[in-house]
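Design request, tokens follow.
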């Protein structure tokens, strides 16, 4: 059989999408003497893959270490129109009409390290630093003169540190798809929503930099090379571990909080323009379940459970990547939210570089 010509495909970093860094498919180092008159033995044939961020990909070779600085900016905007009063007719309102515009901006810088333990096993550590800012602009139109109020809050600090393991499940001797199993754990090193400073009424004075809950996410990545493209898909399930918060906020004590789990899906295509450049098109969707929160009135001892609505976060993905040299790449990615719960835009810049450590 003829061995497929290897071609470097530089896959750009996508959302919060796949495993990043200079990664290469596992190759067979076995050498055997060919017999006259017989075809050579089947060899593992696959393209060399530079990066597939946050989901999982064909992995870093044994002894290779990849260090990846990353900068990410996310923006979302919510506009609400609220009427407080009496509706006499559909065209006649007696009361106050409030217009509220909420802008949420998040800047995250992180450093990720990946080590190829073997040609099929990779370990990862990610340390983020987060700065968040929320600005609420409220306009009360039904007063004279019109009343405007602006309120801003911010928060910064260490985010939730993550560790992960990625294992290539098959050797792909027949030219089919690659299967990679992933397991990711997110800690609670960031400041949780229950630890931030608040007023006596429970109103936030600052913003959290972490979720406040441990989470574990197993997932499966499928990569199918079709020169000059690679098709990818990923499915995962995020387990958010419930916790007994036991914190008083305002007039109530927050008891057990069970954050909703999430089903995570993504798919797309990475296309090689030439030996150094590529672009990626994709889509990802997170279906996040309902969150249950216990509230206890300390005066009466009555406990009630409040259930928050589920979330549907879907985004289109667009990315570019360029291989500066064999050890360094640069990638730029954009996410455009297409569901109501998704951020409007997310911009991510990564610059992974690798070197041999053993």
């Amino acid at each position: 059989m003829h061995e497929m010509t290897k071609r470097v495909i530089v896959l750009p970093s996508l959302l919060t999408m796949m495993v990043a860094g200079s990664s290469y498919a596992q190759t067979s180092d076995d050498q055997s003497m060919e017999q006259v008159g017989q075809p050579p033995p089947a060899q593992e044939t696959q393209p060399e893959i530079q990066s597939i961020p946050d989901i999982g990909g064909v992995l870093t070779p044994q002894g290779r270490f990849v260090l990846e600085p990353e900068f990410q900016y996310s923006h979302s905007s919510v506009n609400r129109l609220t009427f407080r009063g009496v509706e006499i007719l559909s065209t006649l309102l007696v009361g106050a009409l409030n217009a509220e515009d909420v802008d949420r901006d998040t800047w995250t810088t992180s450093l990720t390290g990946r080590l190829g333990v073997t040609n099929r096993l990779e370990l990862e550590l990610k340390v983020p630093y987060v700065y968040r800012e929320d600005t609420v602009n409220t306009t009360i139109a039904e007063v004279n003169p019109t009343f405007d109020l602006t309120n801003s809050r911010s928060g910064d600090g260490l985010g939730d540190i993550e560790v992960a393991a990625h294992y290539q499940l098959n050797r792909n001797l027949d030219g089919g798809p690659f299967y990679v199993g992933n397991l990711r754990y997110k800690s609670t090193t960031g400041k949780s929503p229950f630890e931030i400073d608040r007023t006596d009424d429970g109103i936030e004075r600052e913003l959290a930099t972490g979720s406040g809950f441990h989470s574990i996410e197993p997932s499966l990545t499928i990569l199918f090379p079709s020169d000059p493209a690679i098709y990818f898909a990923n499915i995962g399930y995020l387990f958010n571990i419930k916790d007994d918060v036991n914190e008083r906020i305002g007039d109530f004590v927050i008891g057990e909080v069970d954050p909703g789990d999430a089903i995570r899906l993504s798919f797309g295509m990475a296309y090689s323009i030439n030996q150094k450049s590529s672009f990626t098109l994709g889509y990802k969707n997170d279906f996040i379940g309902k969150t249950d929160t216990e509230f206890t009135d300390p005066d009466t001892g009555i406990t009630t459970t409040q259930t928050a609505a589920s979330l549907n976060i879907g985004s289109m993905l667009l990315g570019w990547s360029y291989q500066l040299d064999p050890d360094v790449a640069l990638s730029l990615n954009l996410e455009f939210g297409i569901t109501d719960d998704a951020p409007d835009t997310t911009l991510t810049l990564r610059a992974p570089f690798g070197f041999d450590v053993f």
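Comment from the thread starter after seeing the answer: thanks! Residues 8-26+44-356 form a domain with the Porin fold (CATH 2.40.160.40).
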